[in-house]
Design a protein that fits this description.
Layout (H helix, E strand, L loop, with lengths): L1 H13 L3 H21 L3 H18 L3 E7 L8 H5 L9 E5 L13 H14 L6 E6 L6 H17 L4 E6 L7 E4 L3 E5 L28 E7 L7
Parallel strand pairs: 2-3, 3-4
Antiparallel strand pairs: 1-7, 2-5, 5-6, 6-7
Helix pairs in contact: 1-2, 2-3, 5-6
């Protein structure tokens, strides 16, 4: 499986499809690392380590892709933005967003958006086991609502075998989402790039692909991410 994945990565690389090739390179590296762990033959271990080093050099991505979402654009649900980076090897996700809160304000639905993001992770094809959320406390009476909602999301995720770790920071400003396969996505507005639906029974209320967006920019990076051999 590892050899076939690497072969596919090279083919994509040659074809100039760099984003897809990076995904395949990373999968190939992780599959070969599993072989190294299971192999007792030191000579074979060394050959595999050499191949992994070569692949790491090829995939050591200074990769940057930018997506511009125009005002009122549709078709940019979470699956559209994140799905191609959520390969089967993804098991851990980090979400940093200072505004996962304010469910009570008409202009923001961040807690619901975070829930929708978690639903996407649960559906796969990745096998996420842990989600780390770093956000900030809501103010006043909103803090109680925020904590209740996050606890409910945490309990619900546990029913699917997913652990949600929640931390708070009063100084957090950046918004980014990272996967343990090396992909990092930064969205100018964080998860809150959808406009308020016109009504509870309007098209786009449930399906984010049909929901108009605020203008924002999505930056996708790939960083070197391999385990020690």
């Amino acid at each position: 499986a590892g050899a076939e994945t690497v072969k596919r990565a090279v083919q994509l690389d040659v074809a100039g499809r760099f984003q897809e090739s990076l995904v395949c390179y990373q999968e190939g590296i992780d599959l070969l690392l599993q072989v190294v762990k299971a192999t007792t033959d030191e000579a074979k271990k060394q050959r595999y380590r050499q191949k992994i080093s070569e692949l790491t050099f090829l995939s050591d991505g200074k990769y940057h892709k930018q997506i511009r979402i125009e005002e009122n654009a549709t078709g940019f649900g979470y699956e559209k933005i994140f799905q191609e980076y959520l390969t089967e090897i993804v098991s851990e996700v980090w979400v940093e967003d200072p505004y996962i809160r304010q469910v009570h304000q008409a202009s923001r639905y961040l807690l619901y958006n975070f829930l929708r993001f978690c639903e996407m992770l649960v559906k796969g094809p990745c096998k996420v086991k842990t989600i780390h959320l770093l956000t900030s406390y809501d103010e006043g009476i909103g803090k109680s609502q925020q904590m209740t909602a996050l606890e409910e999301i945490k309990q619900s995720l546990s029913n699917y075998g997913v652990t949600l770790n929640i931390d708070f920071s009063s100084s957090i400003h950046d918004r980014e989402i990272r996967f343990n396969n090396g992909w990092m996505i930064k969205i100018g507005r964080g998860l809150d790039y959808f406009k308020k639906p016109q009504g509870r029974f309007s098209i786009g209320y449930c399906d984010f692909d049909l929901r108009p967006c605020h203008e924002t920019t999505v930056d996708v990076f790939h960083t070197k991410h391999t385990k020690k051999m």
